[in-house]
TrEMBL record:
Signal peptide from the UniProt entry: none
The protein's name: Uncharacterized protein
Taxonomy, superkingdom: Eukaryota
GO cellular component terms listed in the entry, alphabetical order: cytoplasm
Annotated GO MF terms: tRNA adenosine(64)-2'-O-ribosylphosphate transferase activity
Domain Rit1 DUSP-like positions: 348-444
One record GO biological process: charged-tRNA amino acid modification
PANTHER family in the record: TRNA A64-2'-O-RIBOSYLPHOSPHATE TRANSFERASE
Organism this protein belongs to: Allomyces macrogynus (strain ATCC 38327)
Ranges of residues in domain Rit1 N-terminal: 36-282
Length: 446
């Protein structure tokens, strides 16, 4: 028993001594709470929680028989690669109260083709403790569905979940959609990659849902967009489960704070080793740089040409050697190729840019390097050049680099009537370039 506790039990009433007791008690409790939080948020516990929630993804996919689309960034962790049809990027911040928006760089137009082909889709995401659904699923997806319906001249307006979005907020969202978002989208004259014949309507599923029966698509007067939050809601009192780990709701959120360089592809490719034990997980994290490139990344290739330019935007898989399809490659990832023969510098530029928030400053710093390399090695031979600009999924870093090259060297294509080379790039120029890119590469999100 500590001396301060002895003092209390002896009935001492000295104010200084009592203050010391209270201070010591508070400090000890605070330290214990911090230690417990660090322990329960260790990467091993996070990955075990992700794996448990992923079982619900498998169950939903089996019941609904529709393609799985993982919402970046959190949702991608929960979606096993063999079940993942595609990804999307519908941010929760675009659904926050009073800030409702559908930015041009996150229009997710590629989903229209998926919905048209399969007559439905399952969007996977999660959220932290205290909420049943993330704002991305309860607000941003409904805004997106309503906006696409309007652009497609389909009748259904904004549909929200009453238990999560109040009637007054839903009315405010609908008003903002009509007065601000739709006029901007219509003015941009967006070219849609597909035109579903039925209205798009969001439906919501979580582990507490009682039924997962899939209705016959022919009997529906709409195309369902299933918004699936995979994590169960936990209370503060929840503790260790039976197999020696702490379950964490929405464990994959804010990956930059816990992943230590681990990616969803690496996790799923080496899942057994990461989940074997806490020590095994730590060992795998310590040796990330030596883990083989996941098959899903290595073998999947996709690239889209930007007409009128030598530029192609693609996935890492599109950069497989030998480069018979491309004369030049710009690698916008933080992983070099495992080739014995190093590519010639005039053919190849490696930017070493990390994925997510960590890579934003790296990408910005790389812009002068990209421009100088492109001007030296490509501009003089544009007729025969085929330049692949790629990141892992062909959705973000590669798109940003392609946008830079478009507005620097091919402005006439993306800024109507502009024939003058200029170093000044406006937001309108970037919006026009992004619309040009999404027309030919719908998965782009910039």
């Amino acid at each position: 028993m500590t001396a301060p506790t002895d003092a209390l039990q002896r009935g001492h009433t000295d104010q200084t001594e009592l203050a010391a007791v209270v201070s010591t008690s508070r400090t000890t409790t605070s330290q214990a709470t911090r230690r417990l939080k660090r322990h329960t948020h260790q990467t091993y516990h996070i990955l075990r929680s992700i794996d448990e929630d992923a079982k619900f993804v498998v169950h939903v996919a089996d019941q609904l028989k529709l393609p799985i689309v993982a919402n970046l960034r959190c949702g991608r962790w929960y979606s096993p690669p063999d079940l993942t049809h595609d990804t999307c990027y519908l941010k929760s911040t675009d659904g926050h109260y009073g800030k409702w928006d559908l930015p041009m760089r996150r229009l997710n137009l590629h989903l229209l083709k998926v919905l048209d082909e399969h007559q439905g889709v399952i969007i996977i995401d999660s959220t932290r403790r205290g909420k049943r659904f993330p704002d991305a699923l309860t607000r941003t997806v409904p805004l997106w569905c309503a906006a696409m319906n309007a652009l497609l001249d389909l009748p259904l307006g904004l549909c929200t979940l009453p238990s999560q979005v109040s009637a007054s907020e839903s009315a405010a969202m609908a008003a903002h959609l009509s007065s601000a978002i739709l006029p901007r989208l219509r003015a941009a004259q967006i070219k849609l990659p597909a035109r579903p014949a039925k209205s798009l309507r969001p439906l919501w599923i979580s582990p507490s849902s009682t039924s997962l029966d899939r209705p016959d698509p022919a009997e529906l007067d709409f195309i369902p967009v299933y918004c699936v939050c995979v994590s169960r809601v936990v209370e503060e009192s929840d503790g260790y489960r039976g197999d020696n780990y702490v379950y964490i709701q929405g464990a994959a959120d804010d990956e930059e704070n816990w992943a230590q360089g681990l990616t969803p592809d690496l996790f799923w490719s080496h899942r057994a080793a990461f989940l074997a034990s806490a020590d095994s997980c730590d060992a795998q994290l310590a040796s990330l740089s030596t883990l083989p490139t996941p098959r899903a990344v290595r073998d999947t290739g996709h690239a889209s040409h930007l007409p009128g330019t030598p530029l192609w935007i693609g996935t890492r898989g599109a950069a497989r050697r030998p480069w018979t399809d491309f004369t030049h490659v710009i690698n916008c990832t933080n992983a070099e190729y495992a080739y014995d023969l190093a590519p010639r510098p005039e053919q190849y530029l490696y930017l070493n840019v990390h994925e997510g928030k960590k890579g934003q400053d790296q990408l910005l710093a790389a812009f002068p390097v990209v421009e100088a390399w492109f001007a030296k090695n490509v501009l003089g031979k544009q007729e025969e050049a085929k330049v692949l600009v790629h990141c892992n999924q062909g959705m973000d870093r590669s798109v940003t680099v392609a946008l830079l090259l478009l507005v620097r060297y091919y402005r006439a294509l993306v800024v109507p009537g502009d024939r003058v080379e200029s170093r000044d790039v406006s937001k309108d120029d970037m919006r026009a370039a992004l619309l040009f890119v999404t027309e030919h590469h719908p998965r782009a999100r910039g």
